[in-house]
Amino acid sequence: MILLLIECARAHPDPGELRRLSGLCSDWDGLIGSASQRGVAPLVFWALNRACPDAVPPEALAALRNCFRQNIKRNLRFAKELLRLLDLFGPAGIQTIPFKGPALAWSLYETPGLRRMADLDLLVPQRDVSHAIDLLTSNGYRRLGPSIGLRFFSDAGQLVFKGTDGEFTVEIHWRVAPAHFNPLNAAEIRARLAPINVAGRLMPAFCPEDLLAYLCVHGATHGWISLIGLSDLGRLIDVYRLDWDAILSRAARQRMSRIVSLGLCLAQDLMGSNLPPEVSSRIHGDARAVALAASIRAQLQDGRASSSQDLLILRFRLLEGWRKFLFFWYSLHPNANDWEFFGIPESMFPVYYLAKPVRLAWLWCIRPIVNLNRRARS
Hints:
Elements: H1 2-9, H2 15-24, H3 28-37, H4 41-51, H5 58-89, E1 97-99, H6 101-108, E2 120-123, H7 129-137, E3 141-143, E4 158-163, E5 169-173, H8 186-191, E6 194-198, E7 201-205, H9 208-221, H10 227-239, H11 244-253, H12 257-271, H13 277-283, H14 287-302, H15 308-318, H16 323-331, H17 336-342, H18 351-377
Parallel strand pairs: 2-5
Antiparallel strand pairs: 1-2, 3-4, 4-5, 6-7
């Protein structure tokens, strides 16, 4: 089943392989459910409907077609809301860069309806976060989570908002990735922006080389469990003529070569991405990246989920040099989960630095032992 989903998620699926794998599928309801869960149901319809519609049971093809049509309507609503938010932030002097969601759907895919999206991600300068919060809350959005100071979110670098109608979720970012796993320089990204067209309007976006680095970081942050993330990376490599020297040299300078190598190994091995021979040779020269890619590929094929501890360990293994020290520093920095766990008043914020090791000891040492003993007694 997963092999069929992977083939459908490729930029150029093989028609013969699609037909062969479709013939092996005995649980189409399960496949559709898995495709929806992994965010690739529109891609599955697009690939199978073009290559071998006769190999798919009519009711399954109809269900996939319905998913595709509903996603088109949903994406158009998201694009309309994105344009409204840009019109809100622009006159206020907030430089806003949309990324993920509509930015990827309109710039990387044959039709925007192929890319599933769950929210709108907007990168704003850190100095403008408070202003952006005020604009959103006065224009139909409410902040999710505890109403505590931004210093509790210094690692995540984002806040989540929900529209009062419940349809749209907006994430305001002042970091492109969590600080403990963030080799990307937002100022450099802003200096290299390239315009894209979303729903008929030009807007700023990451340049293709920075977008590739971001997709590799984002995928690694979540353990590459999402096929849509791999599809994004594969299509980026297919759509743009990339400056590979710039990509690899920046990755080395930012100490993220292993992160990029892991993403490119997966794109080549799973998405069939056509990398230049010298790039393929270089990324496969990193034995740890190759081993991690093999492990993730096996995990995808087995359908195994990663725990939060597994993801943290993966991130740590991917970090290079002094960035490992940042990992530990931000792991000790208070966050919203600590506020909810301890309930110490925000005015006593420095106390959280003393309390945080207690919570980490509970999460990583004490609770696993307690749970193990409970399972042994039962």
